[in-house]
Amino acid sequence: MAVAVRRPDGVITVKRKGLDFFSEKRFLSKLPLVRGVITLISALVLGVEALNFSVNQALPEGEKEASPWTMGLTFGVALCLGICLFFLVPSS
Fold first, then answer.
1. For a disulfide at 63, which of 7, 59, 70, 91, Cβ 3.0-4.6 Å?
2. Which H or E element spans position 72?
3. Rounded to an integer, what distance in angstroms lies between the CA atom of residue 58 and that of residue 56?
4. pLDDT per residue over 11-24, tens digit each?
C-alpha cells in the first residue's frame, strides 16, 4: 500500500506499507461469506489508516494529531449515518 500526500509547505510525503492479508492465512477465511466480510473489514481499516495519515500530514506543524478516539468516533457516526440513509430510510 502506498499513500502520497502534499503537505501545506508543498512537500509530498509518501507512506509505504507491505500488506499482510489475513484472508490468506486462516481456514475460516476460505469460506465465501466469511472471506467477503474479512476483506471488507480489511479494506475499511486500510482506508481509515490512509485517511488518518492524510489528515495528520495536512495539519500545520504546531497542531496536534487527530487521536484514535476522534477517528473512531467519526468512523462510527459515518457508518451509522450511512446505514440510516441507505438502508432504513428507503425501506420505510
1. 59
2. helix 68-83
3. 6
4. 999 999 888 765 56
Q: Which residue has the higher pLDDT, 79 or 16?
A: 16
Look at the block and give the residue holding cell 472471506. 35
**Is 5:54 a contact under the CB 8 Å cutoff?**
yes
What does the DSSP 8-state code read for residue 18? -
With a threshold of 0.85, does the pTM exceed it? no
Q: From CA 31, how far away is CA 7, in angstroms rounded?
A: 42
- Provide the sign of the torsion angle of the four alpha carbons 53, 59, 60, 65, taken in this order: negative
Distance (Å, whole) CA 3 – CA 19: 13
**What is the average per-residue pLDDT within 46-51?**
86
pLDDT value, residue 24? 60
CB 1 within 8 A of CB 19: yes
What phi, psi does 66 have (nearest 5°)?
-70, 135
In 3-state terms, what secondary structure has residue 3? strand
